[in-house]
Amino acid sequence: MDAAEFRRRGKEMVDYVADYLENIEKRQVYPDVEPGYLRSLIPEEAPEEAESYEDVVKDIERVIMPGVTHWHSPYFYAYFPTAHSFPAMLADMLCGAIGCIGFSWAASPACTELETVMMDWLGKMLKLPEDFLAGTEGKGGGVIQGTASEATLIALLAARSKIVKLIQADHPDRSETDVISKLVAYSSDQAHSSVERAGLIGGVRMKKIPTDDKFSVRGAALHKVLKEDRAAGLIPFFFCATLGTTPSCAFDCITELGPICNAEKIWMHIDAAYAGSAFICPEFRPLLNGVEFADSFNFNPHKWLLVNFDCSAMWVKKRSDIIGAFKMEPLYLKHDHQESGLVTDYRHWQIPLGRRFRSLKMWFVFRMYGLKGLQAYIRKGSNELNETLLKRINSARKIHLVPCQLAGEFVLRFAVCARTTESRHVQEAWSHISHLASELLQELPH
Ligand code: PLP
Predict the structure, then answer these.
(1) Long-range pairs, 398-407, Cβ under 8 A, ≥24
(2) pTM for the full model?
(3) pLDDT digits over 187-206, tens only?
(4) Of the chain's two ends, which shows fewer C-beta atoms within 10 Å, N or C?
(5) How far is CA 315 from the centre of its chain?
(6) Distance of CA 274 from the midpoint of ligand 1 (Å)
(7) 300 C-alpha vs ligand 1 centroid, how far in Å?
(8) Segment 392-412, tens digit of pLDDT
């Protein structure tokens, strides 16, 4: 395929994608296939001779689509949301075209620098404490990881390395193996399985702290376990708090837990994988109070902030903790600016060496939505929106409703009151409400 054909095929592919997304609700959300369905539809081996683009494209509908679960269908209510937007898709296209591997500043300066600045932009949207921002002189900073699971693992490994060094500084006779065998990490009993897995991969004991009746870990519960474990000769070193648990979106009480972790020199990591995007709205930001006690914080813009997978935002207060834990400096990766303090080499912040230019997706999305657009997206269906809808319904004078409050939610209350009401009146009222609601939603910035 040469550039001329790429131009043509690229436009066709954009049309295919736009058609797919515009008509997605007509597709069955969950596929009707049995395991192994695909093997029988394609040859056993890769073709010896090149095939045409048409041949490949026609197999998208024949081979791929029958086995796709349509995560972006309005009928998809499983697992969790995965973010999606046209600006992010276009940015991903550019990322593929540039195709750099940004493991160090020198490997592609724009890739590193845009990431540092985008993580600062996002950190400011969340009103993170200054300590987490890189700025030009900060000691903290953000990095894009692939997933929240990786962020938790990296935080746990960095904390492990830090505590081993700390203990060995006081007790040079203690071996690393001895210290690691006594380490214990903690999370909520509601934490995502990736947290327990981080403990397994990191080779440390992991304990689950019981939650209260709101599925939240409280300070007293952590305190009790820490006391018991210290008495048993164990070394608590890491606590992973969850803000927005997977089963019920519960929030651990980090304003109680943070001071305990700080006093006990335990690394506090916060996993806000799904709920974290909401903190860009001032009305939800109080849920993040206590982040000032954390050593690291992570959430997934790829879940709810319109940036396509993969984009998991992680911040640390002291980047030297994370860089110090994983630094390898082979000669072939060195460059002139690495000790200047002006740049970072993101390969030290993550497990793989290679990394894509993922910050382009953030840049496109943040600029094309603006903070207000992103907030409006998070608030879609909010109390304010419901209140506006009710005002419009009542001022149109066709039907009349009053609201009520249910567990803090502004709810439009539809009561069938008159002796003369028939089913057709209810249908009519419903189509009137739906019409006004669609009008209102269309006015929101896209
Ligand atoms: N943490 C929480 C609270 C989650 O809800 C999830 C996914 O649902 C994860 C972690 C794992 O996310 P990822 O797929 O980015 O590793």
Answers:
(1) 398/429, 398/432, 399/429, 399/432, 399/433
(2) 0.85
(3) 999 999 999 999 999 999 99
(4) N
(5) 13
(6) 7
(7) 8
(8) 999 999 999 998 887 667 889
